[in-house]
Design brief:
Largest sheet of chain B: 6 strands, parallel
Number of domains of chain B: 1
Number of helices of chain B: 9
Strand content of chain B: 15-25%
Helix content of chain A: 40-55%
Radius of gyration of chain A: 15 Å
Largest sheet of chain A: 6 strands, parallel
Strand content of chain A: 15-25%
CATH architecture of chain B: 3-Layer(aba) Sandwich
Oligomer: heterodimer
Largest interface: A-B, 36 and 31 residues
CATH architecture of chain A: 3-Layer(aba) Sandwich
Distance between the termini of chain A: 32 Å
CATH superfamily of chain A: Thiamin diphosphate (ThDP)-binding fold, Pyr/PP domains
Number of strands of chain B: 6
CATH topology of chain A: Rossmann fold
Amino acid sequence: MTRLECLRAIYEDIQDCAVVTIMGATSAELHSLGHRPNFFYLTHAMGLASSIGLGLALCQPSRRVVVLDGDGSVLMNLGGLSTLARYGPRNMVEIIFDNESLLSVGGFPTATATGTDLAACARGAGIDNTVTARNADDFVSAVRAALAGEKLACIVAKVEAVGPAGYIVDTHMLEDRFMFARAMRQPPQNGGKMP
Amino acid sequence: MPVSEAHSRVVYDALRASGVKVVSALPETWLVHLIRMAEDDPNMILVRLAKEEEGVGVSMGAHFAGVRSALLMQNHGFLQAINGIVSGAMLYHMPLLLMISDRGHLGEKDPWQTEGGRYTRRVLDALGIVHDELRNPDEVAVKVDRAMTLAQSSLSPVALLMTRSLMWEEPPPPPAGPPPAAGLAAPRAAGERPGGSGA
């Protein structure tokens, strides 16, 4: 499965959540499916997407927060998984697209290509509610279960190392940043709201 | 422990008064009272980190949520967090209040702390981060409030260095010897900075 297929399949489920993505292919693909003010694309600051999600989730417990992370980014902040587990925000879903490579910079293999299991890392860090999805059906089911639940969830999606032709999106990063901040001042709607 | 609990309380109360609702921290000796105060405060969200750089992300998330935060870190923790500060907070124009314990400066007995003390201010300057020192409990409230105000208005990191003069309770001085010769005591006292010698 590809990350784009996964994103397309869950777009409607996550469209009202606060979504924080990592840079590169993930942000470009989500953006290509339709930008929303409640989507924030973290350019640079590799590893910190889950930390931003944690800060947001702890401060706004009534809003669902979805982080779209990647293997390279998570490997840069493995300790962040332990912090996430420690506070276990029930309104947060950490999705890790694992394509076993640093695709944006030429496809060099990450450590998940040589045996590191990020789901095991997450579970070992203390996020019990962790699953690995290897096909689109399992992925969508896992995301829907996580969004219906009230427990911190981690979903590791094993995806092909393919991405878009380019990573440029037509909104400037600062425009996104202020748009997202403004969106977070509004009360969450529909599926973005915790029960 | 000679870390001042009373002055830690002054710093903690100043953070609360400036609207801080989230504190991220990685423990170090000078920060233990502050972290316990945050832990005991039902109105404070304390995020204990594995590594200081995470705290930049937590503060960014808090800012998005409209909540004020502060990072408690040793100066080595500041050095650790620099990529997050530059490529997260500065790139995205995010307010950060960095409360940095000023280890490795005058009076430091631990050899392993001394390198960080040598470079902290210069690194802050190189990054263009406005910084000031907290030396005296009387200046804490106003400086914390002003640092928070500047961080929020400039959407930038601002650092306050919590010095030994503020954070450390020195053991009582040795018994007084003979009084100093007339003429020596006054100039020496006049050369001291408020809050003590920093030793």
